[in-house]
Prior knowledge:
The chain is of the alpha/beta class and 434 residues long. It is 39% helix and 9% strand. The chain is built from 16 helices and 10 strands. It has a 6-stranded parallel beta sheet with strand order 3-4-5-6-7-8. The protein has a two-stranded antiparallel sheet with strand order 1-2. Strands 9-10 form a two-stranded parallel sheet. α2 (86-98) packs across α3 and α3 (115-132) packs parallel to α4.
Amino acid sequence: MDTMEKLRILSDAAKYDAACTSSGVNRAGVKGQLGSAAACGICHSFASDGRCISLLKVLMTNICAYDCTYCLNRRSNDTPRATFRPQELADLTISFYRRNYIEGLFLSSAVFGSPDITCERMLETLHILRNEYHFNGYIHVKAIPGADETLLQQLGLLADRMSVNIELPSNDSLKRLAPQKSKENILLPMSRIRDGIKENAHDLIRYKSAPRFVPGGQSTQMIIGATPENDRCILQLSEGLYHKYSLKRVFYSAYIPVVQDRNLPALDTAPPLLREHRLYQADWLLRFYGFTADELLSEKTPDLDPMLDPKCSWAVRHPEEFPVEVNRAPYEKLLRVPGIGVVSAKRIIRARRQAKLDHEGLKKLGVVLKRASYFITCNGKMQCRLRTDEPAVLAGILRDRGLPQGGIQPEIPEQLSLFNPTKEDAVKCLTGQL
């Protein structure tokens, strides 16, 4: 099998790994070395200057010793198999970089033989890239649960970011669908990477020339929709991972039915793309807006609202928190108002030191008034004349979005925060202004 045929098989096998994130690493070009790294974004993301930055996303091999029910690469599945040799993959990466196809590498792998054997092959690939080709670009590598701690340490010194897939939202689901994996084996490398990052931070303070260990931090990915866990369970897990393992990002991957099995959704089941999007929005609230999982969802309402984004849904359920006077409210209170994001809240704090703000001024500061107007006052006055009880506010929001007010719109795979979004809505969603 030639290199391009292997690439076709192994890049296709890697498509279910989420890698669209900012790298978190700024590294300038060095004379005599290839490439650089920028913190702004990777893998078909757009940088602040408009550039589209791309990665070679590929598996080392799709020959797997495990037989996870949900996975196309499982041992029992009849699928074309291929394996890159470390030198071959390193040559391919450099060749693509020199042709300006890519700016970095995202390397994952099935478990070939054993975790240690797989990790050794990935480590050899990174060693060739960094030390023989002097590749200075971005590298994201998937850590293999069960691999020796020394191998993970060496990988971390060569990679910019590492990730360990949590796979499924609960240990029960993991036992049912991936019996050869365990929660403990997955969390152990996470803790080792976390500890390595902390130790390296202390070393860098003492010795500025110390090698950097995973400077872009670590992330994880979980599959949603393959198992019965509700959104509250998923967000509580994410919240715990952020706090305990200092993760940069949790990725949510909507399960695409590719396997016929009694423990999985039927093949004709649509992927839960809208649910995935709502989870990403809620995750944003956990990381940047000061919300907790138990605030967003409860035992009575364990799943996110398909009609409203999580922040708006929370606001509608908590009328006692509103209206908020934008000329006096603290920053933390402003962040809870739908339509006011992190950027616009900071602008409000700065602007109101100079003059009192009105609704027109808020619009110029980037506030999405068609959401915020139901929840704020400017100098004691509301722009909206509707009653502020839950049915009235909900009806007004749905009307503004072009949705029927008497029922739930059929689920549509949306990647923005609104149905039928305007240009303004699209910009606010992409910049995280919920």
